[in-house]
Amino acid sequence: xxxxxxxxxxxxxxxxxxxxxxxxxxxxxxxxxxxxxxxxxxxxxxxxxxxxxxxxxxxxxxxxxxxxxxxxxxxxxxxxxxxxxxxxxxxxxxxxxxxxxxxxxxxxxxxxxxxxxxxxxxxxxxxxxxxxxxxxxxxxxxxxxxxxxxxxxxxxxxxxxxxxxxxxxxxxxxxxxxxxxxxxxxxxxxxxxxxxxxxxxxxxxxxxxxxxxxxxxxxxxxxxxxxxxxxxxxxxxxxxxxxxxxxxxxxxxxxxxxxxxxxxxxxxxxxxxxxxxxxxxxxxxx
Length: 286
Description:
Layout: E1 8-11, H1 19-27, E2 32-34, H2 39-42, H3 44-52, E3 60-65, E4 67-70, E5 73-76, H4 80-94, E6 100-104, H5 114-134, E7 140-144, E8 163-167, H6 174-186, E9 194-197, H7 208-211, H8 227-234, E10 243-247, H9 251-260, H10 267-283
Parallel strand pairs: 1-2, 1-10, 2-3, 3-6, 6-7, 7-8, 8-9, 9-10
Antiparallel strand pairs: 4-5
């Protein structure tokens, strides 16, 4: 069994919730898992407790609230009462308080005027901050797939989250990367408080990964380094994050990602890539 390494969080978005991936994660030194109230058709927490109840005390658990079941589908809401109820149910289903609860994609419900959107976000954040104070979770944060609307809303009256999780990696647009970094700076969040997610754009089997050579972003790559490993390692700099939540049900793939951590990204190549993304965005028609 390897020593614990905080840089990888096992994401359970598309997971089959099998016990073997939890035991494999622990053997590889991964002792953090990320799920959500709405995953697995709103049964993820109960399923996790069912397959790994005796293991959960060995993991730091992060989850998310913001989507709710209604009329056979999921709807998004930032209503403080619904968020509170979801966190209470999360505690019951897991049999313990999660270590971290994210406000899930708040941008989905911030379609009002800027003043109204800011008030909606403030009240939702206050609900999570209160829940953390009361022991329903250890800490709280914001998980955003598209953080571009958020920096303009994050003034000093907004409660400061403990963690921000954002989309990252080589396939992430420069506008999303810049918004993520601006939001982290607005809240003065350090690298360990900024997490990445979806480092492969959602699919490691995409033909793009056979055409793109991510090894150019790695210092001293060797023949044993795969394109997937190189893309994963580079994702820690796009944006600059301390942890990445990544999902798999395959222990071999998880081991491959852990092994990728022994490589280092090439800062010059990353800077060049970001400059090219900027130039490409500047050429886009308005």
